[in-house]
Write a structure and sequence with these properties.
Blueprint lengths: L2 H12 L26 E8 L3 E8 L5 E7 L20 H11 L3 E5 L17 H16 L3 E11 L1 H13 L5 E5 L6 H16 L4 H16 L6 H4 L3 H11 L4 H9 L2 H5 L6 E6 L10 H8 L6 E6 L5 H14 L4 H8 L22 H4 L2 H10 L25
Parallel strand pairs: 3-4, 3-5, 5-6, 6-7, 7-8
Antiparallel strand pairs: 1-2, 2-4
Length: 403
């Protein structure tokens, strides 16, 4: 999805109620951002709420503009959408904010609790800490003289979409719209179990259910508040490590909340316009499962736009490209990075700026999004999780699994 597509989505959210469509195309209102504009931009460092650090980017001209608060995806992902768990840094959140500002929006992005410059401790915290920070960001943008307070949006990517939904439930009609970018329609518990089952079935056909069943039981016991022993719960070393990270005292409260948070219940209560975006080749947030779930949950809302992006390359396509190169020349370090993250293509109209396609969906298209989410729980350690062999090889690549 390119920046013009998101601009049109914001235009759609700015207008009156319209039936759901798959290709948003609405004439911009005077208060909407302009997909055709290429304005100079200005950035400034800000602090709001309970010492939450962030960056505000705005058009470099006088006027009143709509505002967008961006909430990044999972794990230790900072305001620019970079993560210490990922070796390459494309700063897609920064690029996205600058692109939207060039179209006539004031954009705020920030370091969430426990990440980068935000020193808030996560121990004992619940998901409410993220909602509090998002609402503080919204309050801040409304206080800015250059912001049209009637047109303030929140956009969440991946796990950030869950926090955007929960924030919208409390903000009500004070928001002009909610943008869900590659947001799951299932709980983390269900996604995690589905991914693990698929991986085991591929490696050991016919054995997945027997191997996953004790892990599922242990996870549900943990969610119910029971004490579990990871080694007694499953013989698979990788799953023992995963349960250990989930149940660690410093992260258990937050982990329980992440595992059971239901995005559908929240979406069903949103009354302002909703934009639901997903990539058709997304390997983590399934466009055939999650997108329809979100759209169905929002059916009572008469202003819902669904946009499925058919562009970009899947991880399998990227692997094939690397395999072809490896056959021609010795494998080098850059091939490893390319295997994990295909080089993003320029979006139409980006000119000399490479607005990575990742800016809008997109990290989880090539990455295991659940892996990155669980990285928040285990800190800076990324281990490749081989569910059958229990390998513990440490990796720094996008498709790593967290243990």
């Amino acid at each position: 999805m390119n920046r013009a597509a998101l601009a049109l989505a914001l235009v759609a959210c700015s207008g009156g109620a319209t039936p759901p469509v798959t290709e948003p195309a609405v004439t911009p209102a005077a208060s909407a951002i302009d997909p055709a504009a290429h304005l100079p931009t200005q950035a400034e460092e800000i602090v709001f709420g309970d010492h939450v650090p962030g960056t505000l980017v705005k058009p470099g001209k006088a006027g009143k503009f709509p505002a967008i608060v961006l909430f990044q995806g999972s794990g230790p992902t900072d305001r620019d959408w970079n993560s210490p768990l990922i070796t390459t840094k494309n700063g897609s959140g920064k690029l996205l904010a600058e692109a939207l500002a060039s179209h006539g929006a004031v954009v705020v992005r920030f370091d969430k609790a426990g990440v980068a410059a935000n020193t808030t401790k996560l121990e004992g915290q619940t998901l409410d800490i993220y909602v509090a920070e998002a609402r503080a960001a919204l309050a801040y943008v409304r206080s800015r003289p250059e912001v049209d307070t009637a047109h303030v949006f929140i956009a969440g990517h991946s796990e950030g979409g869950l926090h955007a939904i929960r924030t919208a439930d409390l903000e009500g009609n004070a928001l002009a719209g909610v943008l869900l970018l590659s947001t799951t329609g299932r709980t983390l518990r269900d996604i995690l179990l589905a991914q693990i089952t698929t991986q085991i079935e591929r490696a050991a056909p016919g054995q997945a259910e027997a191997m996953v069943a004790p892990f599922r039981t242990a996870m549900d016991d943990f969610i119910a508040g029971k004490t579990i022993d990871p080694k007694a719960a499953t013989p698979i070393a990788g799953l023992q490590q995963l349960l250990g990270s989930l149940t660690a005292p410093a992260s258990a409260t937050l982990a329980r909340g992440l595992l059971v948070a239901d995005p559908l219940a929240g979406v069903a209560k949103i009354t302002v316009p909703i934009f639901i975006y997903n990539g058709e080749k997304d390997v983590q947030v399934d466009p055939t499962i999650d997108t329809p779930l979100l759209a169905s949950a929002a059916k009572a809302n008469k202003d819902v736009t669904v946009f499925l992006d058919a562009g970009g390359r899947s991880r399998a396509e990227a692997r094939a490209q690397v395999a072809r190169r490896a056959a021609r020349e010795p494998r080098r370090a850059r091939d490893r990075v390319q295997l994990a993250r295909p080089r993003p293509r320029r979006s139409d109209g980006c000119r000399d700026r490479r607005l990575a396609r990742q800016a809008l969906a997109l990290r989880d298209r090539e990455a295991g999004d659940t892996a990155i989410l669980l990285a928040l729980i285990v800190g800076e350690h990324v281990l490749e999780l081989d569910l059958v062999l229990g390998a513990k090889r440490r990796e720094q690549q996008l498709d790593a699994r967290v243990a």
